[in-house]
Amino acid sequence: MAMKKKHQRLVLALIALVAVIGAGLLAASALKDEAAYFYTPEDAKVKGVEPGKAIRLGGMVVGGSLKKQADGVTIAFDVTDGKAVVPARFTGIAPDLFREGSGVVAEGSFDRNGTFVATNLLAKHDERYMPRELEGMTYNATSHEMKAQ
Amino acid sequence: MIAELGLAALWMAAALAALQLLFSVLGLAQGKAELLSGVRPVAIAQGVLVLLAFLCLVALFWRSDMSVALVALNSHSAKPWLYKFAGAWGNHEGSMLLWVTVMGAAGAAVALFERALRRDTHMATLGAQAAISLGFYAFLLFSSNPFARLDPAPRDGQGLNPLLQDPGLAFHPPTLYFGYVGLSVAFSFAVGALVTRRVDALFARAMRPWVLAAWVLLTIGITAGSYWAYYELGWGGWWFWDPVENASLMPWLAATALLHSVTVLATRDALRAWTVMLAVVAFSMSMVGTFLVRSGILTSVHAFAVDPERGSFILALLAIYIGGALALFALRVGTVREGAQFELVSREALLVVNNLLLTVILGVVLIGTLYPLMTEAFGHKVSVGPPYFDRIAGPLALALMLAMVAGPLTRWRRDRAGVVGGRLIWPLLAMLGAGAVLGVLAHGRLSLLSFFGLVIAVGVALGSVIPLFKRNLRRTPLFVYGMVIAHLGCAVSIAGMASDSAFTTEKLIAMAPGDRVESAGWTLHFDRVAPLAGDNWIAMQADVSVSRGGAKAVLHPQSRFFTSPPTTTTESAILTRWNGQLYVVLGEQLEDGRWQMRIWWKPFVTLIWLGGLMIALGGVLTLIGRERRGWMLRLRKGSAARGTGEEWA
């Protein structure tokens, strides 16, 4: 089992190299499958997202679209980027700053009817916080006017 | 006056760092002993001055001196005293000042207490430490001055982000920073040894306590941060693979690898170049983490300010230090002679496996963390989340656990595969047994990762105490206990993670006062909800009576509203039992008067943090066990004893 003495250092260096390359390949393969792509409603409409695929959907909550279901913990709302509108549903305690007209990044997947079922909502965290994906978007909840830079 | 005193102290500390670097470089280059003898006093003075600057900032926050811009922006006179105090580092400038303070203090400690290192390497190390500090002093003084005045002074401040207003703020950032920045000492040691071409067992023995201390603090900081996020965010999760969490995990992974490789170098004089490389990588990860968190490139509760100039500044520092160290490594690695050999079946070989797995996990986490930033530069918005990290890091971590069972049961240098196999028989049988029991009891309810997590935790728990079998327990060295407890802590922590993800029950419901609900064997009665006022917040607080079997308690989840800045936070209520935690969150009130309530029962979730603390305790015991003799000797002999030769070229 003895390693050839002369070559031990070389062998160790090669193993380290293989490990680093292995890490890169492993990461690349997983990124291909798991990187939850960020979609705006327009992206989702144009590109199409297969039901069940985990993604992030980001946009603004359309004014007047927020509806509470009878169970008290499920809400339905529409998400827009000014170009397209996607219906969404969420069961859980919505973040404190989640409201009509505010920005939201929803994590989840589309169901077969084209409704986005969110498992997690990221809203504006405090007055100085904005989900990174939404930087540059502004939206007027009453006039439904949308600006994206 | 305090602000001016602080600023002056900061400038003087920076000047002393420059002097320290100069003395060290000139002294070593020209072999001038009188220059070198100035290095240590200067390093100590620098540490004292930067500490003074930091205390000045704390005093300004304490007194709510609103004429200082930083205080006005981040504090408020109505804040409870603890947050006035801790608020000093709950912001960008203050936290960077804490960073250089720790770095200066660490440099002073190396100057004061390091005795085992050769003198020339010691001086080169202090020079390297000064060089790093200098960059961060420049960053503070030129782009993040914490002492800038505001004229006219506002009547009152804007207040601290309420999410930070928690006792956790008082100790989570400092411990994490001590660990983060403590790794700069390992980095400086590596640079020092490369400069003087003395990478050997002696160097490793000198570096080991510093690495251990930094690693212990990093472990505590991460454990505390995880628990803080768990109860403060009210999401019931303890780790979110948030880039900022990854920023603290990556140095920890590198430091853990370093800790094991430095032991190989100290004990067996093998893995020389690799250990030096890891020391460079570990602190580089600290700086990458700082860059991610402080540049404003990420948005999170940790990113206090979005300022591209600061981001570029830190990026430049990063490039200079990491690039410089790697260039030095490339130049000098040829002069690092090959260390001692070892066989394929040996403890060294298994520690190589440990190092490789940790490095691969580090690489995977690093890529996953940076990937969204890189793609965004090309106009793609991508987010990488828990599915990616769980899928890769999970199995790799479990593989690492298996190596952890075998490592301590294998001899240094050479062992026989059959003999090692014989020692592994009990852990293997225990894992088979645990697998069979789980397979029958929880068939189909467990994910693969949870199943293997629980099974391997059993194996690691048993395997980690085997090194104590047949030993005289009173004569067993303390560092063996340290290793056993740290490894046992890993098993405990993994078991907690697996149990939480496999057996947690969650209930989401809208309830009116007077309603009753059952969940996971608990009966929860929503007694009432009433308003409550705090120092700088008002809240709606619910009384929820919970009972299971003979156990009874009343929980008080809150929905809290802060006035400055205006923010609502949910304060979860947690009941800790020996076998798990009941976690209740109060949501918002519906129009019909009902309240949203989220209830979790998390069996054995506390093991996660208990394991983390055990890992840290193991580190402390190892540190004491390894260094006690040296400390005692020094106490007796005063400061006379110095490791080895005084010859330097």
From TrEMBL, chain B:
The keyword Cell membrane belongs to this UniProt entry's keyword annotation: yes
Domain Cytochrome c-type biogenesis protein CcmF C-terminal: start-end pairs: 315-626
Topology in the lipid bilayer: Multi-pass membrane protein
Chain segments annotated as transmembrane: 6-29, 41-62, 96-113, 125-142, 177-197, 209-229, 249-266, 273-293, 313-331, 352-372, 392-412, 424-442, 448-469, 478-498, 604-624
Domain of life: Bacteria
Domain Cytochrome c assembly protein residues, every copy: 89-295
GO biological process entries: cytochrome complex assembly
Record carries keyword Hydrolase: no
Cell compartment(s), UniProt: Cell inner membrane
Keyword annotations: Cell inner membrane, Cell membrane, Cytochrome c-type biogenesis, Membrane, Transmembrane, Transmembrane helix
Family: Belongs to the CcmF/CycK/Ccl1/NrfE/CcsA family.
Function: Required for the biogenesis of c-type cytochromes. Possible subunit of a heme lyase.
Protein name (database record): Cytochrome c-type biogenesis protein CcmF
